[in-house]
Amino acid sequence: MSISPVAPKSTPSFSLRRAFEEQWPPQDRKALVILLYTAVAMTVNYYFARHANAVATLRLFGIARGADAAARFVSESANPQLLALQWWVSFFVLTYIVLPALLVTRLFRESLADYGVRFRGALRDWKIFLALLVIVLPIIWHFSATPAFQNRYPFYRLAPGEPLSAALLTWEAFYLVQFAGTEFFYRGLLVQGLRERFGTLSVAVMVVPYTMIHFNKPFPETVGAIIAGMVLGSLSFRSRSIVLGVLLHWAVALTMDAASLWHRGVL
C-alpha cells in the first residue's frame, strides 16, 4: 500500500495592501491621508503660493525656463502686484478647496456636508459669533494704528496718496475667497475629518498647522491665531458647519484692512 506524499502547506504571499490594512484600521487610514495631505499642501503653498518663492524654487531645481516664464507672467502684466496676490489665492483655492473636496468625495466617498459645507444648524451659535466680534473688533482697532500692522494690511499696497481703486476692491474679493478655503481646509477637512479618530482633540490637532501659517505675520496676530483656532474649531466641531467661521473671518479681515486704511487717511 503506497502512501501519497503530503503536499507542504503553502506560505501565503506577502501583500503590501493587506499589511497596510492590518496595520492601519479604517479610521486611522483616513486620518493618515488627511495629515499627510496637510503636510503636502502646506509645503506646496510655502514654496509655490508666493510668486517670488515659486520663481526661486524653480530656479533651485534648475527649471530656468519655467522660472523665467513665471517671472514674466507677473512682471509683464498690467498690474504685477495684483496678479502676484491672485497667484497666491489660486494656490489656496487648489490646495485648500479643490483637492480636499476631491479627497472627500472621490477617495473617502463622503459628502462635503459632513465636512462643514452645510447651512443647517450653522447659525445655532450666532450669539457666540456676535460676542467674538465685540471682543475682537476693539483689539483690531487698537493694533491697526501700529506701524507693523499698517505695513502688513491690506496686502494690496496703495501708493502714497493713491485713493481707493478697482484693483484694491478686486483684491478684497479674492481675499474673501481665500478665507473660505482656509475655513474649509482647517475647520472642515481637519476638524471634521479627524473627529472620528481623535474626537474633540481634532480641534487641537488642527490648531498646530493653523498657527504655523501665521508665523510671517505680526506677533499679536500669531498668538491670536492659537485662540481663534481653538474657538473656531470648537464652533465647527459643535455645529458641524464652517459657515460661522467663514463669516467671522470675513468680518475680521475686512475690518483689519478698513482700519489700516482709515489710520493712513485713505478712508
Question: What does this protein look like?
Answer:
The chain is mostly helical and 267 residues long. Helix content is 72%, strand content 0%. The chain is built from eleven helices and no strands. Helix 6 (126-143) packs parallel to helix 11 (243-263), helix 8 runs antiparallel to helix 11 and helix 9 (201-212) runs antiparallel to helix 10. The mean pLDDT is 89.
Largest sheet: none
Determine Rg (CA atoms, Å): 24 Å
Number of beta strands: 0
Outline the low-pLDDT stretches.
none
Fraction of residues in H or I helices: over 70%
Distance between the termini: 107 Å
Highlighted features:
single chain, 267 residues, mainly alpha, 11 helices, 72% helix, globular
Indicate the topology:
Elements: H1 16-23, H2 26-49, H3 51-60, H4 64-75, H5 80-107, H6 126-143, H7 147-150, H8 166-198, H9 201-212, H10 219-239, H11 243-263
Question: Brief overview, please?
Answer:
This protein has 267 residues and is mainly alpha-helical. 72% of the residues lie in helices and 0% in strands.
